[in-house]
Amino acid sequence: MQKTCIEVCDRKAIDFKQKEEIKEIEVGTIILTTGYQIFDATRIPFYGYGKYPNVYTSLEVERLVNASGPTGGELILRDGRHPKTVGIITALARAIRIRTAGVRVHVACILLKLAHLLKEHTDAEVYIIIDIRAAGKSYEEFYDKLLDENVHLSWTCC
After folding, report:
1. Which helix (H) or strand (E) holds 8?
2. For 92-111, what is each residue's pLDDT tens digit?
3. How many whole angstroms separate alpha carbon 150 and alpha carbon 134?
4. What is the pLDDT of residues 109-154, one digit of tens each?
5. Backbone φ, ψ for residue 151 (5° rounding)
6. Chain mean position to CA 127
7. Would you tell me how many other CB atoms lie within 10 Å of the CB of residue 60?
8. pTM, full prediction
9. H/E stretch holding 127
10. Residue 94 and which of 23, 44, 131, 137 are 20 to 30 A apart at CA?
């Protein structure tokens, strides 16, 4: 049996008597979320996603290192081991850039974050093969932080 919001909310936060009002407020930041589609990694079989057990997408790794994830934030591979070496492949970014202008830079920055998470949650050596262009607020400083964390960075030609 489904219940209505008002029946489920134990905080009495739903008030149907409220009237619409328009307020003008000053804010420091606006976050615009446009959504996205998750890329099906099995579409590029060369990298072994779906074939080899310890090939992951970045979203899967982020979920594993999250404290509310299935392993409580500890990165445990599908075969039960902890990773000793992690390679982050960014060749997908080049394929995406061909179809969508500007996406490659954003993909690269997301993968810098992934490398940082891996260093925070594992003792693994982390290797990134990427055409580094750290655009955006504070990403150059973030890039320098990764170097301080001994993340290995390799550059490819454009």
Report:
1. helix 5-8
2. 444 444 444 444 445 566 77
3. 17
4. 677 888 898 999 999 998 876 545 555 667 767 777 887 888 876 6
5. -75, 130
6. 17
7. 13
8. 0.55
9. strand 125-129
10. 137
